[in-house]
Structures are given as structure tokens and as C-alpha cells.
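Residues and backbone
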Amino acid sequence: MNKELFEKGLEVRRSVVGETYVEASLKNADEFSMPMQELVTEFCWGEVWSRPGLDRRSRSILNLGMIAALNRPEEFAVHVRGAINNDVTKEEIRECLLQIAVYVGMPAGLGSFKIARQVFKEMGI
């Protein structure tokens, strides 16, 4: 593990998806799953999310589409929160979800709206 990238990734990950989520993910990791937490923190957050080519807002918008297309509802909820943290508005998220429905399919769009509404409710938005 590259400790420098891990620390950088930890900072970005906390900023985007929140301290509570990240700490719970690390705390709940065991000997079996900790290497995955290290990999995602180092590679995804430290290496890719830290690159200068796209801002975090743009990366959040991309993630909404990709994660919805992959039908990963738990991760989708995390990234709706991340998008809000990265200054994507509720209205912009709605437009992303309409785009998802057209290109990925109505079930993905409907499911994404349901998840986003729940996240907005939890966040008081």
C-alpha cells in the first residue's frame, strides 16, 4: 500500500462521502475486508479522485450515471450524498436521473429517483 496515496484518498473520501460513512467503513472492516477498504481509498480516492483533470462536482455527476447503470443502490445512495457535498444541486441530480432513465432504462431511473428521494429526506433537503 502506498501510504501517501492512502492518506490523500482518505482526505478526499471523507470530504466527498462524509466522515461518518468513511469511519464506519474502516471500523467495520475485518482482516478479510480491510484490503478492499485500503484499495478503494488509495486507488479510487487517492489516485483518481485527486487528479486535476476533472473537478469533484463533475466526477460526482459521472458517478451517478455509472453507478445507476451498474444497479448498485447502496453505492448510489452514498454518491447522491457525495454529489450534494460536491455542490451538485437537487435539481441537477434530478436532471441526471432523467438522463439515466432515458439511456439506461426506466427501472434504473425509477430506482434512482427512489433512492435519491430517501437520501434527500435523510439530509433534510
